[in-house]
Amino acid sequence: MQAHIEALKDSKHCPLWLDHEDLPATLPALQKDEHCELLIVGGGFTGLWAALQLKERNPDSDIILIEKTFIGDGASGRNGGFISEDLAHGAENMVQRFPVEAEKLAELGHQNVKEFLNTLERYGIDARYEKVGELKLLPMLSMLNIYVKFMKKIKQQATMLFGLIKRRCKRKFILQPI
Q: What tens digit of pLDDT does each residue of 43-73 get?
């Protein structure tokens, strides 16, 4: 057996943060018809947060949330531990596909993360969140002028990006393609 396979033979196939003893037990699958005002399909960040927000606004609302595997599995459980203000899979994509709405989408993304973090705090949820910022690396120096022009279109993100680079980088450097 190859050494790397041997080293992993007793490992569990799950994210590290889901591999601990105090996880709540998975509830059994539905056995009969159920009725509710709102059915939420998916127990990831979005589904859980939608249910929580509705209950906050209307505590008497009748909600059922279903999940194929268990709460927090899927993309929310395997996302590498990051939360992003990005609603369109990259600012470049947002400006290209939604030029009229780009500024509003950037604002909504910021508001979304802010409210999500407020919810964690309000309910005392220990999600091990750390605010660490974001860094964008360009694969080719020739992209710098294009990227600078693009970032001017999204002032809020440009300010954040260049401020982060200024704070985080100890010396100037340029990555050139190999």
A: 888 898 899 999 999 999 999 999 888 777 7
Q: 65 in helix, strand or coil?
A: strand
Instruction: List beta partners, residue 64.
Output: 39
Task: Write out the two tokens for 116.
Answer: 């999500």
b/e string for 54-69 if b means 16 or more Cβ within 10 A? eeeeeeeeeeebebee
Q: What is the pTM of this model?
A: 0.58
Distance, CA of 111 to chain centre:
13
- DSSP three-state, residue 66: strand
> What is the DSSP-derived secondary structure letter of residue 90?
S
Bridge partner residues of 40 (DSSP): 65
SS3 126: coil
The structure tokens listed for 164 are 């982060």
For residue 48, the 8-state DSSP code is H
